[in-house]
Every structure is written in C-alpha cells, then in structure tokens.
Amino acid sequence: MVLRQxxxxxxxxxxxDQNYRYLFKPGPEDEYVSIDCETTGLDRRRDEIITIAAVxxxxxxxxxxxxxxxxxxxxxxxxxEAIKVHGLxxxxxxxxxxxxxxxxxxxxxxGGRPLVGYYIDFDVAxxxxxxxxxxxxxxxxxxxxxxGLYYERxxxxxxxxxxxxxxFAQILEDLKLPLLNxxxxxxxxxxxxxxxxxxxxxxxxxIRIPRPRHKGMGEIHGG
Length: 223
Description:
The chain is α/β, with parallel strands linked by helices. 40% of the residues lie in helices and 18% in strands.
C-alpha cells in the first residue's frame, strides 16, 4: 500500500499530458467504478485487451445506465484457451476500435474514482501497459479487491485448516446473487458491482457470511 502511494506521487509529478491531471483528483463522493476486461490470453507482457466494460457505483446503487462498453481490435492473435473461456474469436473483434482510440474515453469515464474488481490487479496490469504508452504513467486510481472483502466477511476469523474457496461462483452463491453470463466483460463488471455493494452493506451492519461447521484441510481456490 505504501509503495503504491509513493508510485502515485511519482506519477503525479511526472505526468506528461496535463490534460489527464483529473485522474489524480478524487472522484465524486462515494462513487466507484466496477471494471472488467477480456483478453487474448493471460500473458501480461504479450496479450492484449479485446473487450472492456465499466459500471459506476454510487453509494448502494449500481448505475447500469451509466456503463462503458467497448470492443477492442487486438494486434495479436487470440489464444485458443482464451476463446474457450470467453468465446470471443478474432472475427468477433475484427471491427472493434483500437485501444488508442478507446482509452481516452475510458479514462474520462473512470476519472479519479476507485476501481472495483475481481482479481483486479490483472485487469489493471493489462490496462496499464496501454495507459503508460498513452500518457506516460500508470493508472493512479485506488483499487478495491472484492475477493478480499469476501474473505474478510467469511474467513477473517476462520481457524487454521479451514477450506477457503474464493471462486466467483462461490461468492455469488453465498451472497445469493445471480450468475450472469460469466466471462462477458459487462456481465462480469455488473456481478462484481453487485458483490461489492452487498459486501459493503454487510460490513456496515457487521454481518458475517456463515461457514460450514465441519473441519477439514483444503487448498485456497481462486479464479
């Protein structure tokens, strides 16, 4: 956290294009942006974004009518394994815009709001490669990881050896939220927003997610 704050100060001082200084200004009070990207693969250095979706959250309301959605035309081939996950082929994104055309609109949409996501570090890393080329810095926005919020509500007081499942489907099931078309960027951003709002409310009311009573050793599952 301290390292990220130092990096933010450094980026603020070295920002090349002053038109993007608004990224360092706090967004509207109690507003957040749930964001998700689908990509050509999982290699952060080589693969590229093919769809982006972002949804604003204001307090306990998800502003689905104020969503950002874009199809990106990548410069690399889509990995076969990635197609099995999100179902997007090269023909499906061939008429998308370039990431250079889309980023200014996305950054304006996000502003200085904190970013909410599920394993958000991957999405931000994929975006940062492009943002760095566009304006010379990485995204300075604070990040909120919903799997971490879920872990705190369900497993924060768990004894050693507790089976921990941080999968998206398990989180939705525990929170009694609908499973939409997973691995569609907009659907994932919407589900992530619902998860965040639910967990935020639970924390405010000091409600914990119940765990099964049985004991057992197990691995930590994510993804």
